[in-house]
Amino acid sequence: MRKILILILLLLHLCSVARAGSLEQLDGVKLGDSYQQVLDKLKTGHRVTMSETLGVNSEGFFILAQGYSKDAHSCLRKIFFSDSRNELQLIGGFRAPGLNIKEQCFGYDYLAEYLNDAKSIKISIGLNIMHPWLAEYQRDLIITSKDNKVLRFKLSDDTGGYSDEALYQCGDSQFVLKNDVDSYIIDVNQFKISVGLCAANEIHIGGFKKTHKGWAFYPVTNS
Questions:
Q1: What percent of the chain has pLDDT over 70?
Q2: What is the pLDDT of residues 167-216, one digit of tens each?
Q3: Phi, psi (deg, nearest 5) at residue 218
Q4: E-assigned strands of 55-196?
Q5: How far is CA 11 from the centre of its chain?
Q6: What is the pTM of this model?
Q7: Which residues contact 127 (CB under 8 A, 6 or more apart)?
Q8: What are the start-end ranges of the H helices in 71-178?
Q9: How many Å apart are CA 188 and CA 122, to the nearest integer?
Q10: Taking phi first (over 0 means left), then psi (-120 to 50 degrees means alpha), and beta for anything else, what does residue 120 get?
Q11: CA–CA distance, 158 with 117 (Å, rounded to integer)
């Protein structure tokens, strides 16, 4: 599945090259750069969502990032690829509808949301693919207020099937998100996320799960 994703991304890149000509550089990254040089240049203003070396001796590499492009004057998903040596061979950039300048050009490959109208808050977990073929993801917990104020909190990376999270009501003004290892408190009044346990009675609301239907929030009644 992940190999197919890489091929699709490369095809998108090649289509853009056919329309606009081969990119020799993009926002300071240029053809011939090494794997580490590309990563170093992406440290500022970018989120690297996938970085893999390829081949038995790591001769090639594949990097996928998202961020603002001064060259294109918009948010881009950026592709950097080398198939047989530690020198950048292909550079691509394409606009993606999920990336927003107001949100620092960050977007997600998968996004699941729970909306609580009574508390005027939306709780979401976003996943970004971090491996070309294994089911491994970077994960963010996002809360959004009724006036569209957004707070992001980085959860531990999912390195193999551990993205599922249970959501509980915790007292009058808090929620708790937890799995078998971690527990996070979402304070609605203070608009804050922190690591911790619920000090009040917990009411199970539902869970964020990846099933055959996709990555979504499933209420208790539908679990």
A1: 83
A2: 999 999 999 999 888 999 999 999 999 999 998 889 999 999 988 888 89
A3: -115, 115
A4: 60-69, 74-82, 90-94, 110-116, 121-129, 137-145, 150-154, 165-170, 174-178, 183-187, 192-195
A5: 21
A6: 0.68
A7: 108, 109, 110, 111, 137, 138, 139, 158, 163, 215
A8: none
A9: 10
A10: left
A11: 29
